[in-house]
């Protein structure tokens, strides 16, 4: 069998067959195999490849990327490869065949009227048996007879490529002077076809998308492919509309909800280069680009780029690696860049381009605080009089308002008024969240669901359970009572299940069928709603608790992003933040619109003790079916902890989610000075530790979640 590196093959593995990839031609055993003594496989035990699959070989840049991700995240390379090939390549679609007329003369064959009409209908464009039968009125037996006689021959019906080619000149905008300057900087490394990273920072509504589209256009003009990563697939609908307006064709969209057929089609079109621009979730990094010329990460600060299960990797960081291995430039886009990216700018590794003004003379929204201590809502309600009056005014002016609360459901906690019992998840150490519309209490971590009991399960007091605190369902209830004439739309992952539902919601808002939008973090994303002039943040303090390393940074980013939805067109916008801690640096930064000072303060807090990005961090999450088993393994790991200069181990400690899906969890953190890589330390540390029974260790390099 003639095989080359990158070929996908079907191989026997034990009793089954599975898909594998010819990784390389090499005479040395890969390091991962060599480190395990006795792992070298004797020739006698090797078995032949069963079959070469009918797909293009995985390009070298993708294979090197898979190797890189595997080594960085301490994951077996096969698991990373599986992310790139998990699309049922084996049952490749068979090409459709049709009939064409051959050159052979008709002499010597009896031409019946049925045969005559088939020969008249056939041409050199292949037609399926069904089509030819329909066109000629003859049966399929007649067609087969003519084929046997050599007058018809089978030919492949060529199907149109599934993706039209975007035109870089289609709808080019008139850029402002500032935009044009930045666009030129972004285009340069694209034209020079070299690796380079640029942070594109710009206030919300400054035209960042419009400007990086110029780099996309430059890349298309080079005949190369573009990858654009978005943090959330809900955003892809509006993004796609803008892309079509600019380039006159659809991009290829990639995310985990694509149907099997579309996935396979897209994968192949990326591999053969007919899909020129791919917009997608982080998993699009593992597509087999034939000739990648640009990678864009939009909303680069978003923690949604971090994959928290399976192979734990950060999509933004891996996008930069992907670009480097393809020798292509990367652009990281944000109104509120992450401290990680800013540190790379400061050290000179990344370039920095800035858009300072909103497009078309739109002004930045006016952000002010509602001091909830001085101006509280009525008892049992959550919207302060100041905020309600502002909404009244907005609705009177026939503009749109938005209420933001990053909490799904009706109430985050249900409490018994009689005995104080709290409704807790049986599998996790968390409270159950009430979803009143569905009549249930549910756990947002494991999905456990029960109906809302009428009596307290503890003391059996009747009708004593009360909801504590608001979720957006409860805010919606309050808003309906307070603004009975408003047309309200709720945007959360519960109501925007599919891209189609999202597109419909966006259309309603854009067409002005909605007065008041109420939503969770999904409304914070890059939406452009021209009629929206007021944003009310129901609980600006919500993200600040929990002692997470990035709690303040993340709250600033999220709230600034939400605030940025207001006043993006002619009419100026304003933002009201309901807060009990108005003097907090997060609130100061938002009100003064001064993020530089805030980020400098953040940096000063993290730098001295080597918290990221000034040091490196890895989390070890130990879990087991019982608390004892988890503790035993945690102790064993702690006992073997590395001791050396510049390396520190924190823990073990019970994880904040000490029980999750019925598993008991302990955490350790490994922190090193920036120059010391964590991977070799972890490998050495854990090499003799073999979890037994139900116990397991998960390693999270560069953790974002500390739960
Ligand atoms: P950002 O991504 O920075 O929030 P957008 O790229 O979404 O900003 O731009 C905000 C709005 O302004 C969009 O509707 C966009 O089409 C429009 N816009 C920005 N720059 C231009 C331009 N040069 N010409 C026409 N429209 C523009
Ligand atoms: Zn649970």
TrEMBL record:
Reaction(s) catalysed by this chain's protein: ATP + H2O = ADP + phosphate + H(+); Couples ATP hydrolysis with the unwinding of duplex DNA by translocating in the 3'-5' direction
Chain residues that bind Zn(2+) 1: 416, 419, 456, 459
Cofactor(s) named in the record: Zn(2+)
Limits of the Helicase ATP-binding domain: 189-355
Record keywords: ATP-binding, DNA replication, DNA-binding, Helicase, Hydrolase, Isomerase, Metal-binding, Nucleotide-binding, Primosome, Zinc
A GO term for molecular function: hydrolase activity
Gene Ontology process terms (BP): DNA recombination; DNA replication initiation; DNA replication, synthesis of primer; double-strand break repair
Family: Belongs to the helicase family. PriA subfamily.
Protein name per Swiss-Prot or TrEMBL: Replication restart protein PriA
Organism expressing this protein natively: Gluconobacter cerinus
Gene that this sequence comes from: priA
